[in-house]
Amino acid sequence: MIDFSLTPEQRILQKVAREYAEDILKPVVRAADAEPDPQKGFQLIKPAYEKVYELGFATGFLPKKYGGGGLSNIDVLIAAEEIAAVDPGFGCVLLANGLALMPLVWYGSEEQKKKWLTEACNSSTKDYLAGWLVSEPAGSPGGTANFDHPNPKAGIQVTADLKNGEYVINGRKYWPSSAAGWDMKGADVNTVVVRTDRTKGGSGALSCVLVPRGTPGVTYEPCIDKMGQRLNQNADIHFKDVRIPVENAFAVGNGDLAISKAFTWSGPVAGIAAVATARSAYEYVLKWAKEYTAGGMDPIIYHQNVGYMLTDVAMRLEACRYLSYKAGYYADLYDCENHSLGAMAKIYCGEVATQCVYDCMRVMGVNSYDRRSHPMEKFMRDVLCFPIYDAGNMGMQRRKIWGVLAHPSFNPRAFMDNEKITFTKEMEGIGSVVTRPTAHV
Ligand SMILES: Cc1cc2nc3c(=O)[nH]c(=O)nc-3n(C[C@H](O)[C@H](O)[C@H](O)COP(=O)(O)OP(=O)(O)OC[C@H]3O[C@@H](n4cnc5c(N)ncnc54)[C@H](O)[C@@H]3O)c2cc1C
């Protein structure tokens, strides 16, 4: 039976997340967003983060066995929507913990999980942060989208060479959330995707290594100053002969699969966060439309174009929420192997929510452009991030779905029938090698 109602436990989860977001998070959002120095802005949210950690949302997705909340993917979506409705950048800080630690759940040894996950879930200071370091700086070659490119000179270029039982890491990562930590000395742990084989392409050369805070040779440049989602920190990290014991490595030779699965797990979460951002814009403008007369005698909601546009926004947000739920449900069925549906939720919700926020601005009219009196500009700045972050919708997420669809084994009814699709290395690399017109070479 298809049933969209929440269980009594999920209602409590939603209520706790909503109350937390309204009462604890909301009061710090404005100042943190307005702070010109992104690191100072990040520090302003620390007390709210400590509270969210205490409530269990910072590690709720991790297995109970190690002290996590053992939440299902659907549970995570329910809580994430409430938090992101108040600030999606703050939601991204929580998401980064999952991106960094869920790969360890899927690919780590029992010994590694016991050590690192138990530490994550039992922080006495309640300010524990984990970073997921995939993205690399712009350049030629540079960037991230083609991490699975078959040429070893393309894709991930942070290297980890095995020398005397240690990995020696060199290179630079750019963008990873929370990676510089509260004090620019590092998150508690950074999961770094590195090239452990300089001779192979992305589907054989990549691995994950855990780099704890305080490791010599890791330095942090000032954080990236973003247009939106400013409560989230985005770091610029340099590795110079950083030595890490082999025990800190996992998914050796399968870092490509870890990247795909992590950004698949996060897909519906980012999707619902986009819905949440647009939901807040919609609620604000619906109220405005019921009160504001625009120089006429009646509230603007009684103009047909306003009514139709708000109807379309409400309808699209409902549809997006259902797609995120379906992707979360499918992730729960198959241990987060929701590669296509997860990516679909991320792509579709991010792009539709962006249009919804803009449509809300059009309905509200010129007053939506007044940043002192109204929050619309923040919704717009924040929502614009969704199509481009968390593995961008073009070079990474769409390409992942394309790889699944193009594979000879693909059953087009698999999504509707909830059939398991196993994502394999054969599905990677699609579209990463292109032919330039001879005149351009
Ligand atoms: C708020 C925020 C938080 C973030 N957190 C993290 C984090 O925690 N960890 C992390 O590692 N990164 C993080 N990022 C970076 C983010 O994940 C990016 O999505 C990722 O780096 C990929 O960016 P990109 O797709 O623009 O890649 P790029 O490599 O810069 O590609 C640029 C563009 O080129 C085009 N393109 C490239 N290759 C192809 C192709 N083969 N086919 C089609 N089009 C192509 C696409 O249009 C693509 O968007 C964060 C970013 C933001 C803004």
Account of the protein in words:
It is a single chain. The chain is α+β, with helices and mostly antiparallel strands and 441 residues long. It has three domains: 8-121, Acyl-CoA dehydrogenase/oxidase, N-terminal domain (Butyryl-Coa Dehydrogenase, subunit A, domain 1), CATH 1.10.540; 130-253, Butyryl-CoA Dehydrogenase, subunit A, domain 2 (Beta Barrel), CATH 2.40.110; 256-427, Butyryl-CoA Dehydrogenase, subunit A, domain 3 (Up-down Bundle). 47% of the residues lie in helices and 12% in strands. It has helices at residues 8-34, 38-44, 46-55, 73-86, 88-107, 110-121, 202-205, 255-291, 304-333, 339-364, 376-383, 393-406; strands at residues 130-133, 159-163, 166-177, 189-195, 206-212, 218-221, 234-245, 249-250. The strands form two sheets. The protein has a four-stranded mixed β-sheet. Strands 2-3-7-6 form a four-stranded antiparallel β-sheet, with helices on one face. Strand 2 and strand 3 form a beta hairpin. Helix 8 runs antiparallel to helix 9. The mean pLDDT is 97.
